[in-house]
């Protein structure tokens, strides 16, 4: 399959890709700024080293798409489909996901700093070592998720479902766990002690 946009350095600004059928295409090194991909068919799309800045993907279908070393900065995904999509060595800095179909979705060595996953349904997701600094995970279902070694500093975890999640080695402020559901979650000793202290308990 031909690589689309190979060697292009110029960004596309404010382009309208609404309802576009871009199924199975391969893009390399393309750059999009404030472009609208609402309702676009992006199934099976492959991006390598592409940049999307403040783009809109409302109701877009990105099922089975694959993204490597691509950046989605401050983008919006509302009711988009990301089933079986994969992101490898990407950044989703500041992007917001609202009522999206995201099962299953794969994030490998991807920066999720400041991502908005309010109310997202991601039970059992593998986020080992993920960078989720200051992410908004309020109300998200991360039950059974593997968050071992994840960077969760400053993350919002109010009413987050972390039942059965693995939080061992995760870097976080134990006080943020107070509003989360932690039934059956696994934590390391330091986090357990800090969590107890945050609840006003004296350990030892």
TrEMBL record:
Entry superkingdom: Bacteria
Pfam family, one: Pentapeptide
SUPFAM superfamilies found in the cross-reference section: Pentapeptide repeat-like (SSF141571)
Entry-linked InterPro entries: 5peptide_repeat, Pentapeptide-BTB/POZ_domain
Protein name as annotated: Uncharacterized protein YjbI with pentapeptide repeats
Natural source organism: Saccharothrix violaceirubra
